[in-house]
Design a protein that fits this description.
DUF2490 domain-containing protein, mainly beta, globular, DUF2490
Length: 227
């Protein structure tokens, strides 16, 4: 079976398995993302990501997340990034014993792009080392992530966006979480687009539903140098 079809079959099976799971608690909230990519040379760019999540619709803070790094484009289909991220979170279940935590991450990732008919495919492989700061001490955790993303054009400015991302920990339990997303994106111009979608976030003992809102933009600092 060709690699593209194998990956697509994997995506569908993981998504169906995730959707069928029943957790101990359901929560329907929001996931707001602002994502940028800032080109500084022919091969290098700086990614910036900001995320704000709420347990309910823009209510009850869950976490804030910021990420940046340095991306190197090997060619038109392959890129690699190394970077840093910070996360400030509150627990899923609010109780007198539950406490929030801060996390510092270092990550490395590879992104491979390809096509399958009218589909634009993206494979993202990411390794994360996370220092989780709690009152009782700091915990170091490592995990691997794989995301398969499919984009299907629905006109000049609109396209469907599907992805599934599985998280595998280097310690028990091995299954960390899974994210299944279905959405639409509207391209305002080549450097700006808006996204809206539904995201199912599944953990070993809980699953959450999210309305995902995204703003994605690009800047090219090399143009200023050429002037």
């Amino acid at each position: 079976m060709p690699l593209g079809r194998t990956a697509l079959l994997f995506f569908i099976l993981i998504g169906l398995h995730t959707a069928a799971q029943k957790g101990e608690e359901d929560c329907f909230g929001t996931w707001a993302v602002v994502s940028g990519d800032h080109r500084i040379s022919e091969k290098l760019s700086i990614p910036t990501v900001g995320v704000l999540r709420h347990y309910e619709l823009f209510q009850h803070y869950e976490f804030a997340f910021v990420r940046t790094g340095l991306t190197y484009r090997f060619n038109g289909t392959l890129s690699g990034t190394v970077g840093y991220a910070y996360l400030d979170s509150e627990p899923f279940i609010i109780s007198p014993e539950a406490k929030g935590a801060q996390q510092h991450w270092l990550y490395e990732e590879l992104v491979l792009k390809s096509t399958l008919g009218n589909l634009n495919l993206s494979h993202r492989y990411r390794l994360e080392s996370r220092w989780i700061l709690k009152t009782e001490g700091t915990i170091l955790r490592h995990r691997m992530r794989y995301r398969l993303q499919l984009k299907y054009p629905m006109g000049k400015r609109l396209y469907a966006n599907l992805y599934n991302e599985v998280f595998v920990a280097f310690q028990e339990p091995l299954f960390n979480q899974n994210r299944l997303h279905l959405g639409l994106a509207y391209v305002v111009c080549p450097s700006l687009r808006f996204e809206v979608g539904y995201l199912k976030n599944h953990f070993p003992d809980i699953h959450c539903d999210r309305i995902r809102l995204g703003l994605v933009f690009k800047t090219d600092w090399t143009k200023k140098k050429k002037r």
